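Researcher: Can you fold this with uridine-diphosphate-N-acetylglucosamine in place?
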Amino acid sequence: MKLISVAGARPNFMKIAPLADAIIAHNATSSPFIEHILVHTGQHYDRQMSDLFFKELGIPEPDINLGVGGGSHAVQTAEIMKGIEPVLLEHRPDYLLVVGDVNSTIACALVAVKLGIRVIHVEAGLRSGDRGMPEEINRVLTDAISDILFTTESGATENLLREGVSADKIHFTGNVMIDTLLAHRARAEQSDILQRLGVVGEYGVVTLHRPSNVDDPGQLAMLVAALNEVSVDLPLLFPVHPRTRSRLEEHSIRIAERIRLVEPLGYLDFLKLQSSARLVMTDSGGIQEETTVLGVPCLTLRDSTERPVTVTHGTNRLVPLVRESIVAAARRTLSQEPIKGRMPELWDGGAAERIVAILVNYAGKGP
Ligand code: UD1
């Protein structure tokens, strides 16, 4: 059985890591042998956004790097498609496995399906309902052309069924990103990031990078004004995504002294930063899930979430994108005992193993 998997952008790396490990573990003990070829599209290319994650998570060196970084959505997607096609033609895998919802995900899935290669989507079925988000378009399109769909929460399975995906293609296997968190949590606790940043006492963590939040200067200024106010009550650490850094500089947005901007952090340092935080404020998808598992209060600065289980079971709350609402939500969170969330079903560290077991079952069965 020959499988090509694709990693492109930062949130992909922690999803590919446990899958690569589970394939190695399977090959060590059982048959059929899974020949696994890992392709990095190069969508994220900085040391801090990419290489560090491979190193820290022990992900095997990519067999192939397409070297496509930056560009508009159209350019990036098109370049990844042009890059992956010869790879698929040369290797003719039985399956192409993609994770998440980034441009690399849809670009590679689209090329594969047209070459008659079966597509596996890990983290399928998540829906924010907001078609203004590029990731939502990527999710809907990737799921529509996938042959095997692995979901992280039962709501995602329901979304797929509602969209007409046949039940026998869908498998609820849990969350591979949480496999990675649980596997590395103890190591992350050893990180000296708090000392390195000179953090003393309580602090909050901020991340922002959604185009809808950071590309509109008015929206970004409003968010930063809200964070400036929150920082009066709680000092904030803000690892800044390259997209956000360039927008902050471009529009000369004033940031309060108690907000500390730092470079994007590696996986272990960021996990430590989250786990010791009093509060996390973010527009990331993955961080909503990680804070739920860590039991840290999370305020999601978005109108919708594609990960509703983090709200129904976890510590995540959506906050209306209005300055006063953000400040009030943060103050409320700080004045309360942290909410005790429940662990979503199958977020137990065994998702990648379950996925590989199911794939092995498919092997030899044909489409
Ligand atoms: C992408 C994903 C998003 C994910 C995010 C995590 C899509 C549509 N979006 O958004 O879902 O949450 O990654 O970070 O795929 N850049 C660097 N160095 C890098 C990577 C990017 O400087 O290593 C710069 C790029 O040149 C570009 C900007 O950051 O100017 C944005 O990168 P891009 O890959 O277009 O999308 P993200 O905003 O990172």
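Model: Folded with uridine-diphosphate-N-acetylglucosamine in place. The chain is about 50% helix and 15% strand.
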